[in-house]
Amino acid sequence: MAETYRRLVQLAALQAVLCDITAQQATEAALRYQAAVVSHVSDAVIATDQECVVTSWNPAAETVYGHPAADALGRPVAELLGAPLDITEVVRGGGVSRAMHRRADGSRAAVRVSVAEMDGGYVLVCTDETAQRRAERYFATVIASLEEGVLVTRPDGVIESANPAALRILRLPADEVVGAAPPLTDLFDEYGRRIAHHDYPLAATRRTGIPQNGRRLRVRRADGSDAWLSLNCRPLFPDADPPHAVVMSFSDTTERRSIAERLRYKATHDALTGLANRSVVASSVTEALRSPDRTLPVALLFIDLDKFKVINDSLGHAIGDEVLQVVGRRLRGGVRAGDLVGRLGGDEFVVVSRGMTDARAARALATHLRSSLVEPITLDGRELHIDASIGIVLAPPGDPRSADDLIRDADVAMYHAKTTGRGRYEFFDVALRERMQRRLRLEQDLREAVRRNELWVAYQPVVALPGGRTVSVEALLRWNQPNLGVVSPVEFIPLAEESDLISSIGIQTLLTVTREMARQRKLHGVDMDVAVNLSARQLDDPDLLLTVEHALRGAGLPAPALCLEVTESALMRDPLLAAKKLDSLRGLGVRIAIDDFGTGYASLSQLLRLPVDILKIDQSFVTGLGESGQASGIVSGIVAMAHAVDLTVIAEGVETKRQRDVLSELGCDQAQGHYFGRPGSSVDIFRRDDDGFETPDG
Question: What span is annotated as the signal peptide, if there is one (predicted)?
């Protein structure tokens, strides 16, 4: 029994020893685990006693501070951290502090220190945030230097940060932005509609997490000014649940938009007048023509200024530009609301009017516009006067023509108005287009005719009254076009005068006539004179004097045998300048005649100042002779006036014996016309009989 008891006691003791060893081993294992963790964490873990003397210094502490554990143990912790540290104060303040510590090599480190009390001392966990702080400063500097505004809001919508660009663009101080909850300003869409606060991009992204990219909005800033923004919003943490923290970036596109608008304006408007340019005019006409609900005609008025070139050439382009600006303002002020005024270039303008009721309304508009344009324009103390020729085209509903067709047709009508007297308007019709197309073809053919020598000179006799003896001839240009046949001078001479062809044609004609007349005079032994017409352009030619002198010398024709005829209207454009030019020509020995007298505005006083020798009465006064006493009175007055200043008088367009007899009775010196002979070649004209040279009608 005693032995059994003894064995039980030994077994119990053995169990007790085994239990003690197990607990110790567990504790040791736990300590080894904790030591391993402390040894391998990236944060410095430091243990101190109550006096803040280091009792433990893990490998990370060696890395962070550069002190080996052997040197650190037993030293005050503040000495090793390189910065003052009141551990008890940190514990009382929540156990966390941030400070700049100094490493063993003297470099500085940004460290976050967490402090906890333990039996007999403290544990410090020091996290090296130097790289993180550097990155934060880097990105903060980048964000601060951006021209793009950046706002960051918390999930509750409060603005957490705003960079300087955001404050500059919104024109708000930082203390009114950071910590505030949007909206800070009013936003409007591209159509000018105010956006509700809950639909702001920032609010929508915060609520849904859906990014808002490339929104173009107008913001009403704190100072009342407006700015255009290009705006983007994104959730700061896309995987988080709503509401989201949001980063919003935006750039001020006001200047860029303004530049784009100016470029767009320049691309669609005339730079000088501010009126719509050709492309806008064409687009407007196209839109009007294609309007599905159109029930009234579209009217297009093509306006070309008369006498503008004279202003531009004589007073300079600066004055000309001012005149065009005045014209633009007057046209704008003379149309209805909704009508478009455009400038096509030069002195050509267009008015597009929708809903024009009929031709009468278009006529009234043209009359009104022209009335406003003829009002005097005062610039730099000068009173300038202009007029306009206007072409009108109406396009009823369903008209198949394009915008270019309408502009072309209105141009054709304008051209017709200009060629039939200027200062008037004309409506377009198909027959007019055909006539203008014929004119265009004739002008092209006329250029070829000059090159191919299709033009030739005919001569019409001029006879003395009352006897009827041929005393001179007038050279008249003729054209036999291979496809069209004989083209009337009434049709092709104006074309030549309007183009640059008249100068070359005039020179060639003068050379041809002087050579032919010199040859016929020598062949027949007679002193026959010849008259050649000069156009207004030829009269303006600075080389005219040399051309005439060269022609006379080259042909061997005496200067008095040549008479140069200039129309009254050409002379009256600038009488003083014309007088100088005619005086120079007379200095060569040639004679000067005023052609078509009575069709212009010459007065007796003006005639006295012009160095001329002959006055030719226009056919319009001769036609009524023998039938109208008024016609006889007018011709009698012209003859008397001309004789008073020693001018020879020639009547044009004589077609009947009665007209010849009346002219003889009135004292007219000479006459020409079909009654005396039709124009013919120089060979036909120079037929000699015993009494001298006669017309074919003898």
Answer: none
* Contact call for residues 656 and 675 (beta carbons, < 8 A): yes
Taking only the tens place, the pLDDT of each residue in 199-233 is: 999 999 999 999 999 999 999 998 889 999 999 99
* Spatial CA neighbour of 50 closest among 2, 144, 135, 118: 118
Sheet holding 159-162, edge to edge: 159-162, 149-153, 246-252, 226-235, 212-220, 186-188
**First CA to last CA distance, the chain:** 193
Q: What is the pLDDT of residue 450?
A: 81
Kindly calculate the radius of gyration of the chain based on its CA atoms and give it in whole angstroms.
53
* pLDDT given at position 689: 34
Q: Which two tokens stand for residue 18?
A: 């085994």
Tracing tokens 């006799």 back to the chain, one arrives at: 461
Length of the chain measured in residues: 698
Question: For residue 358, which phi and psi values (nearest 5 degrees)?
Answer: -165, -175
Q: What is the pLDDT of residues 243-275, one digit of tens each?
A: 999 999 999 999 998 888 888 888 888 999 999
Task: Identify which of 177, 199, 179, 178 has the alpha carbon closest to the alpha carbon of residue 187.
Answer: 199
The pLDDT value given to residue 603: 62
Beta carbons within 8 Å of 513's beta carbon, 6+ residues apart: 457, 475, 530, 532
> How many Cβ atoms from other residues are within 10 Å of residue 405's Cβ?
16
pLDDT beyond 50 at 118: yes
pLDDT in tens, 539-558: 888 899 999 999 999 999 99
CA dihedral 318, 321, 326, 329 (to 10 degrees): -140
Cα separation of 261 and 270, whole Å?
15
Residue 650 DSSP class: E
With 0-12 / 13-18 / 19 or more C-beta atoms within 10 angstroms meaning exposed / middle / buried, residue 101 is buried
Residue type present at position 414: M
Two structure tokens written together for 209: 């997490």
- Per-position DSSP letters for 654-681, written without gaps between them: --SHHHHHHHHHTT--EE-STTT---B-
